[in-house]
Amino acid sequence: MVTVLVVEGMTCNHCKAAVTKAVEGVSGVESVDVNLESKEVKINHREATSIETVKEAIEDQGYDLA
């Protein structure tokens, strides 16, 4: 399954790395692709993966979801 989230506040490679690491730490996530220009985080994950948990992991890094 693929889910795309729009994340506000990402401006640099440090932001990209922080969001990537946070999302990869969620159980069931298989891969993450962060695009700084479009502010999109594309997440490949198992169907049972909690998107709410993914959102919380991103917000815990200090970023807002659009």
How would you briefly describe this protein structure?
The chain has 66 residues and is α+β, with helices and mostly antiparallel strands.
How many helical stretches? 2
- Uncertain parts: none
Radius of gyration over C-alpha positions, nearest whole angstrom: 10 Å
Largest sheet: 4 strands, antiparallel
CATH C-level label: Alpha Beta
CATH topology term: Alpha-Beta Plaits
* CATH architecture annotation name: 2-Layer Sandwich
Strand content: 25-35%
Count of domains: 1
Order of SSEs, N→C?
Answer: EHEEHE
Order of strands across the biggest sheet? Answer: 2-3-1-4
Percentage of residues in helical conformation:
25-40%
Structural class: alpha+beta
Principal-axis shape equals globular
Head-to-tail CA distance between termini: 21 Å
- Mean pLDDT equals 97
Domain HMA: 1-66
Protein name: Heavy-metal-associated domain-containing protein
GO molecular function: copper ion binding
Keywords: Copper, Metal-binding
Written description of the protein model:
The protein is 33% helix and 33% strand. It is globular and about 30 Å long. It has one domain (2-65): Alpha-Beta Plaits, CATH 3.30.70. The chain contains two helices and four strands. The two termini are 21 Å apart. The protein is α+β, with helices and mostly antiparallel strands and 66 residues long. Strands 2-3-1-4 form a four-stranded antiparallel beta sheet, with helices on one face. The chain has helices at 13-24, 51-60, and strands at residues 2-8, 29-35, 40-45, 64-65.
